[in-house]
């Protein structure tokens, strides 16, 4: 078993006891702690946690690794760190782990992916980052690998990747995480990367299920999508939303009325770029139309 496999296995254990076996809890100043990049972007209910910390203190030590200059990088427990600052604490209990930077990133990613409050978009980014660390590839390269794997699984020729060590490692990581299969991830989660900003924001806020976000993604008309988004936030069922999306798509695909079609063409028209004769005729028609509408 590789060192990374040991770290991955440790992070997936339910209890923190195994993570900190043989390491005593020590207290360090908050100013000595350095947050690390992670998939989790929003920290909910910090005030409630801060109030609990004011009353009872920090009950679960943060996991950190030494940086060698008296500071410690937070591996797991940034939410507790933020709440402790809000509560006015000067120091917190920590458990110091002897990990390399890469091992710490892996442990932090896996620890965060086990949280129930991680939204689907953050979870998608977290899984991709975990695979990126494991495979030594960029996120874009990981996405490309996953899509080639799916194409081969579906019987499409020219994608001989399933027997590769990389594809096997992908399968191992998804089995270890135990949240979904890699096939389900490719089908249901990768499309979240292409969400427009309005839908991504709603998803990150927890105001929209990812299934509804993917359904709304089909609607290109911004006004129609905004209306449907508000309805979905208001509790519209997925079945009802799908029916409304189908209706919106029918309206989008319907032939555009002639006045709107002409108006759209005129909005893009550059008279100066037209040949002289064609420009003269267009100007005549426009003047005649103007007089008629007057």
Q: What does the model show?
A:
The protein is built from 14 helices and 5 strands. A hairpin with a 5-residue loop joins strand 3 and strand 4. With 294 residues, it is α/β, with parallel strands linked by helices. Mean pLDDT is 83; it is low at 12-22.
- Largest sheet, if any? 5 strands, mixed
Helix content: 55-70%
Overall body shape: elongated
Discrete helix count: 14
How far from one another are the termini? 83 Å
**Integer count of domains:** 4
Average pLDDT metric: 83
The CATH class of the largest domain, by name, is Alpha Beta
**Per CATH, which architecture of the largest domain?**
Alpha-Beta Complex
Structural class: alpha/beta
Trace the largest sheet across and list its strands: 1-5-3-4-2
Which sequence of SSEs, written as H and E, runs from N to C?
HEEHEEHEHHHHHHHHHHH
What ranges have pLDDT less than 50 throughout 5 or more consecutive residues? 12-22
Beta-strand content estimate: 5-15%
Radius of gyration: 27 Å
Q: What is the CATH topology classification name of the largest domain?
A: Conserved hypothetical protein from pyrococcus furiosus pfu- 392566-001, ParB domain
Number of strands: 5
């Amino acid at each position: 078993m590789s060192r990374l496999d040991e770290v991955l296995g440790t992070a997936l254990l339910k209890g923190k006891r195994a993570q900190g076996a043989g390491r005593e809890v020590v207290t360090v100043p908050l100013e000595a702690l350095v947050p690390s990049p992670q998939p989790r972007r929003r920290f909910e209910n910090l005030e409630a946690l801060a109030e609990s910390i004011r009353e009872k203190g920090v009950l679960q030590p943060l996991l950190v690794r030494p940086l060698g200059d008296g500071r410690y990088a937070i591996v797991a427990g940034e939410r507790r760190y933020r709440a402790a600052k809000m509560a006015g604490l000067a120091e917190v209990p920590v458990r110091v782990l002897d990990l390399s930077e890469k091992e710490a990133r892996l442990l932090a990613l896996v620890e965060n992916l086990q949280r129930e409050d991680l939204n689907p978009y953050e979870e998608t980014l977290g899984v991709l980052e975990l695979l990126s660390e494991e495979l030594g590839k960029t996120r874009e390269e990981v996405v490309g690998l996953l899509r080639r794997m799916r194409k081969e699984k579906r019987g499409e020729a020219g994608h001989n990747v399933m027997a590769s060590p990389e594809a096997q490692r992908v399968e191992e990581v998804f089995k270890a995480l135990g949240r979904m299969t890699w096939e389900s991830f490719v089908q249901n989660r990768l499309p979240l990367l292409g969400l427009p900003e309005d839908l991504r924001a709603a998803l990150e806020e927890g105001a929209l299920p990812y299934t509804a976000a993917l359904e709304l993604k089909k609607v290109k008309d911004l006004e129609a999508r905004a209306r449907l988004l508000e309805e979905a936030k208001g509790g519209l069922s997925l079945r009802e939303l799908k029916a409304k999306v189908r209706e919106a798509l029918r309206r989008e695909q319907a032939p555009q009325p002639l006045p709107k079609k002409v108006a759209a063409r005129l909005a893009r028209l550059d008279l100066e770029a037209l040949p002289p004769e064609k420009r003269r005729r267009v100007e005549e028609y426009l003047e005649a139309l103007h007089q008629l509408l007057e």
